[in-house]
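Email to the structure team, subject: PCI domain-containing protein model.

Hi all, the expression group asked for a predicted structure before they design truncation constructs. Nothing fancy, just the tokens so they can compare against earlier work. One-line instruction: predict PCI domain-containing protein, return tokens.
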Amino acid sequence: MSKSIEIIEAARVAEAQKRYDEAEEKYYTVINSKLELEEQTQKNRFLQDQETAILELGQVFQTQKSADKLKQLIDNSRAALGHFAKSKTAKIVKTLVEYFDEIPDSLDAQIAAIRESIEWAVNSKLSFLRQQLQLKLSAKLYERGLYQEGLKIITGLLREYKKLDDKSSLLEVQLVESQIYHALRNIPKSKAALTSARTSANSIFCPTLLQAELDCQSGILNAEDKDYKTAFSYFYESFEGYNSQNDPRAIVVLKYMLLTKIMLNLIDDVNVLLNNKNVVKYQSRDIDAMRAISTAYANRSLKEFEAALLTYATELRSDQIIKNHFNALYDNLLEQNLLKIIESYSVVELSHISKVIGLNVQQVEGKLSQMILDKVFYGVLDQGNGWLVIYDQPRKDASYEAALDLVKNMSGVVDLLYEKASALN
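Reply from the structure team: attached below.
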């Protein structure tokens, strides 16, 4: 057994006993060792030991939830990485960068580490690594809300990957492009990018998780068009993909599935879905939040809806997609509540509606005006007296339609007679 292996084994023991500082010191001993071997077999073994030490120390920092130490490890490993093949270097750096994903509140540290690694890759002429890191950076900038900067990187990568005809990488870039355009509310360009991504996916083997991401984005864009039935189908496929890989994003897609059922007012389907054997294991506050919203919507209760939004504020407002659709849901529920209040009246005071629904008179008046203009119901606002006057739905006058048909037919007959008279002349 080589000396490096002995040190790594000792580091593993220290890690198992939660003596993390000791484990860190031993792993760094191997990482910082100088390559002085000439025999190729020994050289390969030494590099393999260094790779093991780098990745396992990264996992130690991941366990400790220490983003700063992980970032420092990437910096400190660059001298050792200079002895590896380019493909191996790319694999190690990419793996270390991905360790940040499991560390809470580490997005800023991850972005900083990726930026520094890109600069190092450019200086070291590691084009493949630079491209992979730029792709990762664009995805993280999207998460951070820095859309324009992410889009700028994407534009350059698209040009490069199209020249290389690298369909696999092109697919990932086009997917991120679609997500960024959607966040910028440029839905046509988001759809175009997604169509390109799906075209690329059809010509290669698409990994399960990447296919799940594609299906999720398809569901999101169909939901934007209010085609919730199709959106649910895509979300279901996405959920199956994430669930099969035990990916934590499964619960997010499950929330989207429940959202589409609520938007379609299929509350019974929500309960059936929540009792599914694949869904039961995801029971959490996120799912309780969606259940509370579906119950409030089924009861047409604005107060219950607002109470659910307050109780589960973090779960419901942290996701921009759910938040956007809930704004529409709230508006729809407000309409239903107003209709529920006024349905038994022919004339009702606005102050009474305001008191019952729990909103001020100006808000109620504005919403009722919009509903009258949209012909949700027929009525008029008497602002002088503060009343709402409700009319029955007007009936179409059949005689008017019949008269129009008669005039149209007579016009046709006259035109025909005119043509025949012209022919005689």
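Residues 1-144 form a domain with the Serine Threonine Protein Phosphatase 5, Tetratricopeptide repeat fold (CATH 1.25.40.570). The two ends are 117 Å apart (CA to CA). Ping us if the truncation boundaries need rechecking.
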